[in-house]
Write a structure and sequence with these properties.
The chain is α+β, with helices and mostly antiparallel strands. It is 21% helix and 39% strand. The protein has 3 helices and 8 strands, in the order E-H-E-E-E-E-H-E-E-E-H. It has helices at residues 26-34, 76-85, 126-134; strands spanning 12-15, 36-44, 46-49, 54-57, 65-72, 89-98, 102-111, 119-121. The strands form 2 sheets. The protein has a 5-stranded mixed β-barrel. The longest helix is centred in the middle third of the chain and has 10 residues, at 76-85. It is globular, with a radius of gyration of 14 Å. Mean pLDDT is 90; it is low at 1-7.
Length: 135
């Protein structure tokens, strides 16, 4: 079981899909009010299109990156709510590149199931998938 008691060093959350600030869903709006937005970031990984949302898996190569955003979470309740919401994902630690050079440890929700037959998002950026669907 993952502890929902963040400390100063583990209170960052990296989001890469429907929880990003541009997403027009209720949980993304809730997160914006419940946590402090710090800015865009990247982390090592592969992103897959799962239909209504993306799923992140471990990178196979050194240059594979996922684009997202980082929030500072000061209330442990936020993680408890998100852990219940993200039922197909597991919360794990990752290293994010925030800004030009700052590397920080953060939580991320990785997709827990297989991705065989799913379309990989080569750019690693779900924003472009959403923008192209709206066009």
């Amino acid at each position: 079981m993952i502890s929902s008691s963040p400390t100063r060093r583990d209170s960052l959350l990296f989001v890469y899909g429907t929880l990003r600030p541009f997403a027009a869903i209720e949980m993304a709006k809730w997160l914006q009010g419940a946590a402090q937005y710090l800015g865009p970031a990247t982390t090592s990984g592969r992103l897959y299109d799962l239909g209504a949302y993306p799923g992140m898996r471990a990178a196979c190569g050194r240059r594979e990156r996922v684009v997202g955003d980082v929030y500072r979470v000061s209330n442990p309740r936020v993680f408890r709510v998100l852990d219940r919401y993200e039922t197909k994902f597991v919360r794990e630690r990752c290293v994010v590149k925030l800004g030009r050079s700052s590397r920080r440890r953060a939580w991320v929700y990785r997709y827990r199931y297989g991705v065989a037959g799913r379309t990989r998002i080569p750019s690693g950026d779900y924003f472009f998938v959403q923008r192209n669907r709206a066009s």
